[in-house]
Amino acid sequence: MIKAVRGTRDLLPPDTALWNLVEQAAHEVFRLYNFREIRTPIFEQTQLFARSVGEETDIVSKEMFTWEDGGRAASEKAQSLTLRPEATAGIVRAYIEHDLNRSGLLQRLYMIGPMFRRERPQKGRYRQFFQIDAEVIGPPTAGSESPSVDAELLEMLAHYLERIGITGWTLELNSVGCANDRPKYNEALRAALAKDLDKMCEDCRRRAVTNPLRVLDCKVPEDQPIIEKLPRMLDYLDESCRQHFQAVQELLTAVGVPYVINARLVRGLDYYTRTAFEFTHGALGAQNAILGGGRYDGLSESLGGPKAPGIGFAIGEDRLVLALSRTAEALSKPPDAYLAPLGTGTNREAAKLARELRRQGVVVELGDESFRLKKSLETASKIGARYAVIVGENEVKADTFALKNLATGEQVAVPRAELAHGIRR
Ligand code: AMP
């Protein structure tokens, strides 16, 4: 038997109702903040992710689904392609490619779709997973660097979570500095790491050389006491980063969005500058981050684009659904009516009636004339329909149908023109 690939999974009804709920709420809540939807391709040139997410990150160094694409036509060149492991890189590429900077305005963009990382699968961690991603990006003259953009985005997230009924989250906040202060911090980190490095895991030893900030992200238990004592980025912020971070916090306090500072929060992608954040949730166990994001003031330029600072987040939809207290059963809506054709030739009449009822907004499941009445009524009950409509030869002749309330067993004859009304009542 052929099974779904390890780390991928099928989302079946009724669970898909939960996915629709969180996606619909995203469309509605983001709209209130004037976000508009963007859709980028599921695969891109490998280089895009290597240059933005960063060669030294787990994502790029070991988790990407990458292949050499031969290019079948003579006009196509062979190239290295990758299934997108995250959304921001593709959105910023599109921003540059379509010269969205030209408007001089802030672009508030969002996207919902699958991402791909070859991670070790476990609860809340998959190889194909879904993100709800949003970005605010634009030229500095449009205010894209303002701390109010950061605070507004975080407030939007709090609003969104409230809307879908997720409580008990924690907003963890940090500033990871910028190109100006990061080198000094990296130097301090390397110096502090030097004496303990031989006691640390292999990844940390490598990162200490290539990208010391990544050491803070290490999850190996034995390394934690060493990491706890390392210098904090917050103590190395230059004056403008410090003021920026301060302003973000003041705005959050003003609008009543609670947060905690987590000086170790660095996120798994290299492009972040200044504000970095995660929303965690206690109900999720080891994979407790429902969403994460941050600022990326230099990303557009590093991809050859204009100066276009931005900030964004990605909500892990799989984990969001796990954190919902609603159950799929409570959301799933059974059909209003089951149409039971009765007798040879009644399928046609039932199909016509179903078409009319659906045009009046009635949710109809259609039976088959080969079923006996008993089987039709049993099916109607099993699917949870409120009514069964019997479409027999006599009913068709009289243009009046037997409407059976499946909860009470009560049955009445209803003229065709009044049927939709009778069912919706
Ligand atoms: P990141 O793109 O790594 O910043 O992750 C943003 C959010 O996506 C995380 O907080 C998770 O909720 C979710 N996420 C990341 N990787 C996975 C995965 N492999 N499986 C499920 N969700 C994920």
Give a summary of the structure in a few sentences.
The chain has 425 residues and is an alpha+beta fold.
Q: Estimate the strand proportion.
A: 15-25%
Q: What radius of gyration results from the CA coordinates?
A: 28 Å
> Which shape, going by the Cα principal axes?
elongated
Largest sheet: 8 strands, mixed
- Mean pLDDT across every amino acid position: 95
Helix content: 25-40%
Measure the end-to-end span. 47 Å
Strand order of the biggest β-sheet:
1-5-6-11-10-9-7-8
Secondary structure tally: strands: 16
Number of helices: 16
Structural class: alpha+beta
What compounds sit in this structure?
Answer: adenosine monophosphate
Low-confidence blocks of residues: none
Task: Describe the fold and architecture.
- Helix content is 36%, strand content 22%.
- α1 (16-32) packs antiparallel against α5 and α5 (147-163) runs parallel beside α9.
- β15 (400-405) and β16 form a beta hairpin.
- The protein has an eight-stranded mixed sheet, sandwiched between helices. A five-stranded mixed sheet has the order 13-12-14-15-16, sandwiched between helices.
- The mean pLDDT is 95.
- With 425 residues, it is of the alpha+beta class.
- It has helices spanning 16-32, 46-52, 58-63, 88-97, 147-163, 182-194, 202-210, 224-228, 239-255, 299-302, 317-323, 328-331, 346-359, 373-382, 393-398, 419-424, and strands at residues 36-37, 43-45, 66-69, 79-83, 107-116, 128-137, 169-175, 260-261, 273-281, 289-295, 310-316, 337-342, 364-366, 387-392, 400-405, 411-415.
- It contains 16 helices and 16 strands.
- The two termini are 47 Å apart.
- Adenosine monophosphate is lined by residues 86, 117, 119, 124-126, 129, 131, 267-268, 289-292, 314, 316, 318-319.
